[in-house]
């Protein structure tokens, strides 16, 4: 009787221990967690890249370079128009 009672108590203790132990996440939960982490990472990376590109676009160097190219192209176009103004198509 004592043996069967002690075996029953051990089985009961193991059952309580197994139920109260933290469950390992299932494969589906791991994939969902991974998907969430990847989405967060890509969103953060997108925001940082967009901010860096905007900062580069609005930097003094970038603005000056664009203006220089614009002015140089306009001057070249003007010179080409003047040079070829006297030539008539045949």
Automatic annotation (TrEMBL):
Principal subcellular localisation of the protein: secreted
GO cellular component, one term: very-low-density lipoprotein particle
Signal sequence, start to end: 1-20
Pfam families given in the database record: ApoC-I
Listed GO biological process terms: lipid transport; lipoprotein metabolic process; negative regulation of cholesterol transport; negative regulation of lipid catabolic process; negative regulation of very-low-density lipoprotein particle clearance; triglyceride metabolic process; very-low-density lipoprotein particle clearance
UniProt KW keywords: Lipid transport, Secreted, Signal, Transport
Subcellular location: Secreted
Gene3D superfamilies (UniProt xref): Apolipoprotein C-I
MF (Gene Ontology): fatty acid binding; phospholipase inhibitor activity
Family: Belongs to the apolipoprotein C1 family.
PANTHER family linked to this entry: APOLIPOPROTEIN C-I
Name of this chain's protein: Apolipoprotein C-I-like
The species this protein was found in: Acipenser oxyrinchus oxyrinchus
